[in-house]
Write a structure and sequence with these properties.
By secondary structure, the protein is α/β, with parallel strands linked by helices. The chain has one domain: 3-Layer(aba) Sandwich (Rossmann fold), CATH 3.40.50.150. 28% of the residues lie in helices and 24% in strands. Strands 3-2-1-4-5-7-6 form a seven-stranded mixed sheet, with helices on one face. The longest helix is centred in the middle third of the chain and has 14 residues. The chain is globular and about 40 Å long. It starts with 25 loop residues before the first helix and ends with a strand.
Length: 177
Amino acid sequence: MRVIAGSAGGRHIEVPRGTDVRPTSDRAREAMFNRLNSLGLVVGVSVLDLYAGSGALGIEALSRGARAATFVDVDAKCVAAVNKNLLVLNSDDVDFESRVVRSDAFSFVRTTHESFDVAFLDPPYQFDGWVELLQSVPAPVAVVESEKAVDVPPNWAELKSSRYGRATIAVLERLAE
C-alpha cells in the first residue's frame, strides 16, 4: 500500500501480516481526504487514528498537512508496523509529530485527557459498539469505516456517507450541546 498524496506521497506503507487488518482502499482514502480537505479538516489539525492497523489513515493525514497524529491499536504487530512506517516516512526534511499507543480503543478514549480535531475510527467489520464509541471519542469530527451504515447517536450528524466495495465510510460531526 502507498501513501496517496502530500509530502510522503508514493512512499510504501507496511501492512502487518497475520492480523485482522483490512486497509482502506486507495480510492476510498482519496475520496475521504478530498472530502475532509473541502471541509478544512486536514491542514493543521490533530488526528486520532483509532484501531490504527498499519497507520495508513493517520499517515495520510500527516502527509497532507495535519500537524499531529496519535495512533492507537491493541495489537502488538500493528503497533510495530505503525512505528516502522513512521520511521520510514520521517526524513531530514519531513518530520511528522506523532505518537503510537498500544491500548484497547475504549480504554484509550475513556482515559485520555487529549482532544483531537478529527478521529479516524476503523474497527473490525463485526464491531457493533458505535454508539458507545462515538459518545466517548475526544473529537468533534469522526470518520468511520464499517461494513454497513453506522448507528449515529443523536448528538452526531452525518455530513457525508459513501460506499466503496464492502466499506461504508461516513464523516460525522458532533452537534453542539
